[in-house]
Amino acid sequence: MPRFREKPPWPDGPQRLRSNRGHPAGQKHTTDIRYFISSLTMGVKQFAKAIRSHWGIETTCHWSLDVTYREDELRTRERRLVENLAWLRRFTLSLLKQHPGKQSLIMKRRKCGWSEDFLLEVLLSQTI
């Protein structure tokens, strides 16, 4: 669980916070230190909650992309292609999540390839 230390705000400027996050790495215990800057005035507990919430969303999105598209196994090297494909995967993942069907995201993705009618359902966000 991250611990936060509040630093005094800069004069007429944003707040800065430091987060120390400890976690086991094999037989060792490592600590990550992250720094955050915000123009919002919040207490330490509110900042901690906002940061945990942000990283929870990031972790969930990455997990979904990895499971649905096997993103960690991709070996594309050309920078623009990598960025374009990443955007396309995030966009299509969003469309698949919005579809009301009960199937898993992987099955919805496969069905889009198998059935043009289902693909249109997903793209148009409606049942045909």
Can you put this structure into words, describing what you see?
This protein is an alpha+beta fold and 128 residues long. The chain has 2 domains: 1-73, no CATH class; 78-128, no CATH class. Helices cover 51% and strands 20% of the residues. Strands 1-2-3 form a 3-stranded antiparallel sheet, covered by helices on one side. Helix 3 (105-114) packs across helix 4 (116-124). The radius of gyration is 20 Å and the shape is elongated.
Tell me briefly what this model is.
By secondary structure, this protein is an alpha+beta fold. The protein is built from four helices and three strands.
Distance N terminus to C terminus?
A: 47 Å
Strand order of the largest sheet: 1-2-3
Please count the beta strands (DSSP E, at least 2 residues each): 3
Q: Counting H and I runs of at least 4 residues, what is the number of helices?
A: 4
Strand content: 15-25%
- The pLDDT mean sits at 82
Tell me the structural class.
Answer: alpha+beta
- Overall form: elongated
Biggest β-sheet description: 3 strands, antiparallel
Number of domains: 2
Low-confidence stretches are: none
Helix content: 40-55%
Please compute the radius of gyration using only Cα atoms. 20 Å
Listing every helix as H and every strand as E from the N terminus to the C terminus, the arrangement reads EEEHHHH
